[in-house]
Amino acid sequence: MQQFDIAIVGAGFAGLNLAHATAAQGLDVAVVDKRTTCPDIFRAEKIEPDQASVMRDLGTLQFRSPKCEPIGKTLRISGGNVSEVDTVEQYGISYSDTINSLRDNLPSEVTCIHETASEIVPGDVARIVLSNGEEVVARLVVLACGDYNKLIGAIGIPRQQHDDLVSLSFGFDIRRQDGLDFDFNGLNYFLPDMPNGVQYLTVFPIGSRMRVNLFTRMRRSDPLATSLRQDTLATLNKLFPDLPGYLGDVVLDSRVQVMPTTYYRLEEQVLPAVVVVGDAFQSVSPATGSGLSKVLIDVQTLSEDFIPRWRNQRVISADDVAAYYRNRCKVDSDRNSLKSWFYEDYGSQERPPLLTRVRRFVQLSLRFGSP
Prior knowledge:
One of its GO terms (molecular function) is FAD binding. Helix content is 30%, strand content 29%.
């Protein structure tokens, strides 16, 4: 039986940032994840300015990969209008490479356990039962295991899911046929009326690669989603007719990756010495660019406002955990993430019509309570 101050289940963005932050406080930390490296998966591919600020505070911004300069000024195209926007401190990243960099640079106070967590047992001291039968004991267990409802559901925390709040994102690399560089740092192309559920296109560098992310409200089964997977560039040119004028003649330079997301949130079920953070607690619409913001707010709130207070307590009670979930900064972050599924007017330069705003407010209030 191995004993730690904190045991984190999940070596993703939330879990590893928390491991760095808590190890820096001198705590004995374990990270439980069966994988030794992060595979090439399609997740967040930009670090926004607010996220960069929090990561700098946590000491983890230096581990982004590739470690390039900020993207800088980008083009914003909407309704026939073109403007230049300073993104201040926005970075293009490889999610997988960044996760592996965060892993590789974990301090010596962190022990990596490459096993599957098969059961969580709350209590005055929480236990993680591993798939090999061994146990990990910790004063605090943090579940940062993403959308792994089986493990969380097994400890009695139900999940609220709404299948009509969906997002389907596409990611792929492009290059110019003539071999020349693109003549812009980045480009964001918005479709104000969101035809066929298409929200916007963003083109940005990740190191030497030029990456495209397309955000939609489609489902995998939609015919347009199939066209985007099978005939990507031709379909894009139909959706964004003047796109070749900005990109030039381009070809695909990678496979097309697709990420479906559905809104879900854990219902409040507080357990002693067990905290759920990040995507394991609530999903975010990828189109907002705020997914990492919510994750980092969870991590920063827990590591800076609560764990230092808890470390001198004999046990971490259910009331202590409830106080974390009620933290105003976290509550606001979770609420804004929910509202983002209803209020997405990325291409509009003006506020939506009053009737549209009232309809959205009523829908949100009836289903989830007052915003």
